[in-house]
Write a structure and sequence with these properties.
205 residues; alpha/beta; 8 helices; 7 strands; 49% helix; globular
Length: 205
């Protein structure tokens, strides 16, 4: 069944969540899985959960990768509803804007470090506000902020935390919007050793 058929079936059923299973371990399969889930994230009328490992146990460790978008807030809230007793690690990775240009222009290293620390402090505040907006019901919530390339940082967090679910927001329905999805969410789909929750659209207030 192709992506459009799955999306249509979910719409007909008025589904709240579309679950697809992942099996196999070769690179071609991972690429096809990522492409299918990416398309579903754009066109499905509901969130998409990609299940990699069958388990009868509830999720215990959830990584929420946020870019502070409405979609990532919706992903956080849904993850909280799916795993109310889990430990939630809310993470944001960032890169210093124009750092390369600053170094090319021979900017003072101390000034760059001050700039980096200022942004880091603002982002830590933003993560705290995001956690408050997500309204996690029961589990413990741990914030993470790192100055790093986001896909690589997410990989590190997934491994270090032994996450059994990663929740990410998926932006937009268009092919152009999916280019950004491909750089982060598709990377997660292809690299995550655990289940992945993709949510598109705004969170309900």
């Amino acid at each position: 069944m192709c992506s459009s058929d799955l999306a249509a079936a979910a719409a007909d059923a008025q589904a709240d969540l579309l679950v697809i299973g992942a099996h196999g371990a070769n690179r071609m399969h991972e690429w096809l899985l990522g492409t299918t889930a990416q398309k579903l994230a754009r066109i499905a009328p509901c969130p998409v959960l990609v299940v990699r490992k069958p388990s009868a146990a509830a999720y215990e460790t959830v990584l929420v990768a946020t870019d502070f978008s409405d979609a990532s807030l919706a992903a956080a809230r849904l993850a909280g509803a799916l795993a109310p007793q889990a430990i939630f690690h809310v993470a944001h990775a960032w890169q210093l804007p124009y750092e390369g240009l600053l170094r090319y222009a021979s900017a003072d290293e101390a000034a760059i470090e001050t700039y980096r620390n200022t942004i880091d402090a603002r982002l830590r505040t933003a993560v705290a506000e995001f956690i408050a907006d997500a309204r996690f019901a029961g589990g413990r919530v741990v914030p993470h902020v790192r100055h790093a390339y986001p896909p690589r940082a997410i990989d590190d967090w997934m491994q270090a935390l032994a996450a059994d679910l990663v929740a990410v927001g998926a932006q937009g329905k268009s092919e152009l919007a999916s280019a950004y999805l491909g750089s982060v969410s598709l990377h997660v789909l292809q690299s995550a050793p655990c289940d992945v929750l993709l949510v598109r659209g705004a969170a309900h207030a």
